[in-house]
Specification:
The chain is of the alpha+beta class. The protein has 2 domains: about 5-80, no CATH class; about 130-280, no CATH class. The protein has helices at about 10-25, 30-40, 45-60, 65-70, 85-95, 100-110, 120-125, 130-135, 145-155, 165-175, 175-185, 200-215, 240-255, 270-280, 300-315; strands spanning about 185, 190-195, 225-230, 260, 265-270. Strands 1-2-3-5-4 form a 5-stranded mixed beta sheet. α3 (about 45-60) runs parallel beside α5 and α6 (about 100-110) runs parallel beside α10. The longest helix is centred in the middle third of the chain and has 17 residues, at about 200-215.
């Protein structure tokens, strides 16, 4: 199908509908041509149109074209990269487990201050085979902290994870605060983690991050602390929630006092005093376990200041 054989379109909505239709038909090149014509006729596309074309290229197995379309957003009127377009790229890279490109894209998102969404969080973690394996097996070597997770991926006794996969997990731990913030509710009455919408792999990592966050606010805990897991309405076997089973297992191994609520079988709950005792009993985190990939490259402020002053005065001499 060629656009020139079609009657001319008029109006931004007409072009937007054409782009969407061509993407649904799996015709990314034609959809991109319609997008370019839309711009040439003075209509300003939205990020949704660029995201749709990028996803279409991604599904067609053309990551280079997908990236090119995303990059062209700025040229078409300074459209800012949005969460939808970012997720489209993550979806493509995750599907083919291209961890090197996933890592580069996550870093770009962090640089552009594009927050990771729950969808992107799921996509990236589900694409990590070593991580998925340890969560699926729930063996005795299952790490019970974010620092322990990174260490285990690096030096698993059987088959250590590829370096790119390790770096992807580290980068996601460093840049996914937005996901935890949206999944966690904190009030005077309750501190709650909601695991609805997360895969078992993503829920496992999120629980580890949540424990770190609760531990950091241990002096201001509300009356109750809870984790909402669901009761398995969307599981293969109704009533058997894999996420609930995983949360129970992980928190149980940590010695957590959170237990299934008698009134809600999809909720783990404990009172403040018992949670405080539990948090106080947890081992002190190891030094140098900052999950941020750039942490090792950060220069202390004082040293950086003296270095810059030295450069300044040397230029005057």
């Amino acid at each position: 199908m060629e656009l020139r054989s079609m009657p001319p379109l008029s109006g931004r909505k007409a072009y937007a509908a054409m782009v969407k239709s061509l993407c649904l038909l799996g015709m990314p090149a034609e959809a991109e041509a319609a997008l370019r014509e839309m711009v040439s006729r003075g209509h300003r596309p939205e990020a949704a149109q660029f995201g749709a074309v990028a996803r279409c290229y991604g599904r067609a197995g053309s990551p280079a074209d997908m990236e090119r379309v995303i990059a062209s957003m700025a040229d078409a009127g300074g459209i800012r990269l949005g969460a939808g377009a970012a997720d489209a790229v993550l979806s493509c890279y995750s599907a083919c487990r291209d961890h090197a490109r996933t890592l580069a894209w996550l870093k770009r998102m962090r640089k552009l201050r594009v927050a990771v969404t729950a969808k992107g969080y799921n996509l990236v973690l589900n694409s990590c085979p070593s991580l998925a394996s340890v969560v699926r097996e729930l063996g005795p070597e299952l790490p019970l902290s974010t620092a322990g997770l990174v260490g285990w991926l690096r030096s698993a006794s059987t088959t250590p994870a590829p370096a790119a996969e390790v770096e992807v997990v580290r980068e996601l731990l460093a840049s996914s605060a937005s996901v935890l913030d949206r999944a966690m509710e904190w009030s005077e009455a309750e501190a709650k983690l909601n695991l609805h919408g997360f895969s078992t792999v993503a829920a496992y990592v999120l629980v580890l991050q949540w424990v770190d966050a609760v531990r950091g606010r241990a002096r201001a805990l509300p009356l109750e602390v809870s984790v909402v897991c669901g009761v398995g309405k969307h599981s293969d076997v109704r009533g058997e929630s894999r996420v609930r089973e995983l949360a129970q297992e992980v928190l149980g191994r940590m010695g957590s006092p959170l237990k299934l609520s008698a009134r809600n079988r999809g909720r783990l709950v404990a009172k403040r005093d018992r949670v405080e005792q539990w948090l106080a009993s947890l081992p002190v985190p190891e030094d140098g376990t900052d999950p941020s990939p750039d942490a090792a490259n950060e220069e202390p402020f004082v040293f950086a200041l003296f270095r810059k002053l030295g450069q300044f005065f040397s230029n005057l001499m």
